């Protein structure tokens, strides 16, 4: 419910803020299509977001149509068409009415009919005094907000205060207007003022552009590759099988009574690794089981098992599944490594003792979802049974290239993600250059992306999110290129080249993660809007049948056939391991599995966060956190640069103003891009994390650039913004990359909000 | 207009002092004269309500416009003084007090300090509250002796309680001085009324005026210092120089923190010297600076020097509570404590929680209304008051932005902005050095509302359309403050 309330709040905020700033110059005018969109976002979407809907919601939605019909009838009798649309916009963005529908409050809807009659009557009376009811919009909004707070919080005193303030405001305004009646302008002038976008620079990509792009990319590459991960971790392993005596147990003998504090196990890829630990003391004949079912959860990293006892022999019995164990390290009470007397019985378990690190950080092993993606990439490479199958395979196949080149170590499984993350900087540069045609703005966008925090973290972890982000960014970049090609009326071949590339990137994105579908929906909207604008509207379809048919044919090829082929081919590792099914069958079965998995994937997680918390950076995700000596900590946090997060949010609001007041076409592109990657998460009820917001965050970068390009001093403002962003990046770099940093520094300086749990 | 009676500044000072003393003499001994107290409250409430209704009626322009803004401001001054006196009368000295402690000479609290001075000597240690500057206690002792001589009382409670009148007088005079500052800054019309309503009804002035402690007096001296700096900026006469030096000296003799504004005055002095160098008047300015220093420094620092010599007490000494205290807030980051606005906390409970809260802006807002105290029986009204206060704070922030970016050529506005920023930075530094819940109390920021009120009054955005809500918010704030404390 909170999620829906916040959606209503945001929708109303966008509408009223845009109205407030636009109405200063002239009354905004809304088209029928816009009203339809308003209705969807203010009424239908919040209901869709609910986890449980009742028939009363449908009843309320239907009953409201009666209300709207009455209102429309009244307006059609007395107002111009433009005014009708403005008032309908007002009606739709009254938060109280939206909350009434959301809470299925049918009584409230009935009362609203009565209030509507009162308002119509008041309008008649005021009209005689030449006072427009629109003059009371602040009171209308305040009253609606007050009532909605009352509805949401039940007798909340602040709701009453707002309502009271609205009444006082109405009285005050009535007194003022009664004494000095001034009629508000009811409609905008017929001649719409055409506002030019800021002058675009040269579209040509110059040598200077190349130098700037390369320099920023290089600097970012250094930041990403710095201590990316160790190339030296245990790699040889011994296999153990459950149930077979002699093959399911390890017995370590120390020759004499020895104090063991901990043992560390570095498991390979296989099995569930449930192990029973027992100890045998001198003089005792019976084994003492001190941990009967210990789950050694994380693969390819050091797992600690607390022993804290004096023993002669240590027994480990595998309880469930098979397991590959790369290395076992025993520590005495002083934290020194002890080699068992019989270590030669298990040569593969004790051959890489010098690679043990205590404490082991992100640098020495897998962290967070690397235990799934890194491991599965390894399995793809070695044609082993596939563990992670809840996302399409392309991303893991890409990760496996790094493993093939550098081995199954942190550097090996992270390098490909790092390269793709680094590659996003020039891609963003090109995108910004295409969009703004200026070197300065392109540099600004690249710097902003490089210092976006999450870009760095996701580039340094072997998960598929940076890969899909790269592909989605490419997909939108090429679609933007297509819209520009249409505007410039470039040859058909060039137009199709842009579309082909966009389709190709879309295919890669979807083959990496299904979030690519969200982006696909976004580019579909942008494609149709651009195409319709190009041919001059729906009415001109018949005139351009030939051109449209050709385009449609290409689109089917680029956006359906080629992606289907690529997506299917991405499953090539599957039939190699599971030979019972063919490639296509694997693809279909896995799709069904993924659909069912993500539908029911709800679990408690300390770092999970709802979509509205992403907007304000409320819950950073800790990928790794290891407390070190001297009060320092090595922590890898996933979150956005607060400057970009909050600045981007303002820029997002500003895009609506730019679209309406300045007729900025870029703003529409950016809004659609941003929302296409965000809105699906509003109706998804699985457990989600802040990194799902990363792709939307890419559009925030361009939105900030767009907003600042309209400011009075764009160069100065961008320079200030960049400098602040770089300063913040430098401050937070250690906690983004796991470098040791004082806990007190984190607590005193870096933790901006109480919900941030960095250390 | 000349025929109408407009009280002069001196009359207002006189009225304030007389009302405070006489009221205390008539109704002062709270606890044993509840009936008289009720009658008094009824009368004052009636007067105040009449004044407020009358003012509101005139303010929104209903009825004949035969009264000047001077007289409207006068009505507000009257109500403000009555509110302060009323609160002082009905609040015993041991209710909503700070560090008063036991009413004897050996508890090291404010009461102890005062009783020692009444008995004719300054504290012989600097333990706990005895490190404080002495002016408040000296004045308190003198007034207490006078009042108790008339009332023929000698017990410790009466001796301590009567010293509240000094705080109350300081609070009332602060109000009059605020009006003078507004005049100096050129506030007129609705802007003047907004500013007046803010300083008249801000409850922290009632609270500080009704308790034993140097806060109200130091607040008054800060306002005087600010006012005379503005006057000196306009006219660099010897009279203004000497008075400014005196107020600085006395202010620092009340509380060393008065020196925070010295940065502001120093900037004004430096600017004037720079201008003087340009037009050749720098020699006379240097002379005035010298005289300023000769008067203010010995007056303001003699007690600090005494404490340094006797006890080795540093100039800016404040007793440190320690990190183990429940009041310690250093566990939160600087951003959370100082720059973020904890909206959740703001509306969760109208009252500040000194042991739990850590966010300076929210704590300052809450403590400007209710101090560190809870008024659970009036939680409803308190919540509404907080609602209006929060909106008023937003208006003040908007006015600040207006002053920073959009008020070109407004020198007085700029000076107010500079003073407010310097003072707030001082508060922030203080809180950074002493990260405890009590460091955020608005009783240390009594000066801040005045320059903010000037900016609120000067902001032209509040003159039209949605901005008119600033007026409604001010009126709402005034009424609910009255209901809460009147």
Explain what you see.
The complex is a heterodimer of chains A (759) and B (486). Chain A has 759 residues and is of the alpha+beta class. Among the domains of chain A are: 2-179, no CATH class; 238-351, Jelly Rolls, CATH 2.60.120. Chain A contains 26 helices and ten strands. Chain A has helices at 2-23, 32-49, 55-78, 81-92, 95-102, 106-128, 137-153, 157-179, 207-225, 370-382, 394-406, 410-436, 439-450, 454-459, 465-487, 492-512, 515-535, 545-569, 573-577, 583-599, 611-615, 642-662, 665-683, 694-709, 714-737, 743-750, and strands spanning 238-240, 249-267, 274-280, 288-295, 303-320, 323-332, 337-338, 621-627, 632-638, 741-742. In chain A, a hairpin with a 4-residue loop joins strand 8 (621-627) and strand 9 (632-638). In chain A, helix 12 runs antiparallel to helix 13 and helix 13 packs antiparallel against helix 24 (694-709). The two termini of chain A are 31 Å apart. Among the domains of chain B are: 214-315, no CATH class; 334-485, no CATH class. Helices cover 67% and strands 0% of the residues of chain B. Chain B has helices spanning 9-27, 34-59, 69-90, 110-118, 135-151, 156-161, 164-184, 189-201, 203-209, 215-234, 238-254, 262-279, 282-311, 334-339, 343-348, 360-370, 379-405, 411-433, 449-458, 469-485. In chain B, helix 3 (69-90) packs antiparallel against helix 7 and helix 5 crosses helix 7 (164-184). The chains are: A alpha+beta (759), B mainly alpha (486). Chains A and B meet through helix 8 and helix 26 of A and helix 14, helix 17 and helix 20 of B.
